[in-house]
Amino acid sequence: MTQMDLMGMGPMGPVSVRLNPNMPTEGEIEETADQQTGRLDLPPFSEEGSADSFFDVFFVVEFGGQRYHNVIPKRMSSVITHKPPAPGNAYESPIEIPLLNENGQPTGFSIGAGRHVPRPVVEVDHFPNTTAVMELQLPDGGSVPIPLMGPTTVDVYFEGAAEGVAFDNDGDDRDEVRTRMTQMDLMGMGPMGPVSVRLNPNMPTEGEIEETADQQTGRLDLPPFSEEGSADSFFDVFFVVEFGGQRYHNVIPKRMSSVITHKPPAPGNAYESPIEIPLLNENGQPTGFSIGAGRHVPRPTCGPGAGDCFEQHPTPFCNREECCERVCELAPNCCITAWGSLCVGLAEEICGPDEACCLPNGQCKDVARGVCELGGGRPQGPKTSCENTECHRPGDCNGDGHVDLRDWGRFQICFTGAGGEVGNHCRCVDMDGDGDVDLVDLRIFHDVVNGP
Alpha-carbon distance 134 to 115, whole Å? Predict the structure, then answer.
């Protein structure tokens, strides 16, 4: 082995593992069965076959500002099915190897079980329209929530020859895989003008997906790899934030966590973090700014985390669930491509202030007028609520289940003619819900009479 430059992040900060230039790392590939003398019998040299392979690795490990090395080689072994190793072929070692300092003295640190996959199976998940809300903490103690949106891309490193293969590498009886976020380009608007949040190219944003319960060893147990299940997922995010002509970054990772119900995350699965993380300037000095609570939705859906229902935005869905669903029933593209002017117009029409709505079954619900009408209900007028509204079947003013002569008496008392105005006690005979009791209501009332 002539090169190995591995980087990662641990509780002590960045970690690097490289080959020791003073001690060669050598190994061997030996076929598991001889099919033809003089040939290494595994693909591509033969149609089938496999080989035992190992490396005696001498490495230099750096973390916490210190450098360590081993003098006892760590033998990493595998059975490979191709030369070079096929995707998912893994070299492993359970042996504990002590680490020495630069003076060759014991340190108390050692390398335990290890696993190295030369060609991991990588699934790339690209999310073109993610949404986020970032709380920007200000130097004066105030805070501003900033809605953001934009694309995000994640690499998922499976541990075998197929997607979904995962192993329990941390000994907690749950299989997991590593992840790395390779793109996050979020844009928004705050009181200081445009705001952008991107990944820090100098500090990798890495994470993990770990099943919440092990159903089958060696498999990440959540859909689509299993019929049911979920997983704990997180990313330790290092970002660059730009606003007000200045650039800021964090050195303490912001851990964004979620319980996901699908891989990639299902619509509405959200990564969240309540932890406040300080922002530094380009010289690494404190600024007084920090990132507070944050929420990131890779695949937004109707409800919190999506854009404002009453403003155009380049992503689908909006932040009021029922309003969003009603709009998308009428204009499906509002939940497929983007929330454009048509979507905003429909939202303004059907998602205004809530008022009491008498449903066809006689129940009451506080919803916007347009939503009430779409559901076949009767709006009870501005500033009404179910708290002070009694709903019956249209025309059944006394709630006895019949539209009869008693209700006809109420109709006559409440008759206003076209353009009149009725009070709450007369809304039961405002059959078309237009705010008056007139000849149109009389015709409808006549059609529903069913009592003695």
Answer: 37
Residue 86 DSSP one-character state: P
* Angstrom distances, CA of residue 289 to CA of 258, 292, 295: 25, 10, 18
Distances (CA, A) of 171 to 93, 245, 257: 15, 47, 21
Residues with Cβ within 8 Å of residue 443, at least 6 apart in sequence: none
Identify the pLDDT of residue 389.
Answer: 84
Backbone angles phi, psi at 442, to 5 degrees: -65, -45
The ranges of the chain with pLDDT < 70 are: 305, 360-361
Kind and range of the H or E run holding 240: strand 239-243
Query: Residue 354: what pLDDT?
Result: 82
Tell me how many degrees the CA angle 182-186-189 measures, rounded to the nearest 5: 165
* Whether residue 196 sits in one domain with residue 80: no
Examine the domain organization and report whether 97 and 129 are in the same domain.
no
* Dihedral over alpha carbons 409, 413, 418, 424 (to 10 degrees): -100
Q: What is the DSSP letter of 25?
A: -
pLDDT of residue 361: 65
Q: Does any domain span residue 110?
A: yes
Q: How many domains does the chain have?
A: 4
Residues in the chain: 452
Expressed as residue numbers, the domain containing 335 is 308-350
Distance CA 301, CA 322 (A): 11
The confidence score (pLDDT) of residue 199 equals 98
Q: Look up residue 123 and give its two tokens.
A: 């699934």
Residues ≥6 apart with Cβ < 8 Å to 197:
132, 134, 148, 184, 186, 188, 239, 240, 241
In a domain, 302, yes or no: no
Q: Which amino acid is at 143?
A: S
CB 390 within 8 A of CB 397: no
Predicted confidence at residue 402, as pLDDT, reads: 82
- Residue 40: which of 77, 91, 83, 89 has the closest Cα? 83
Strand-pair category, 286-297 with 277-280? antiparallel
- The answer as to whether 303 is a domain residue is no
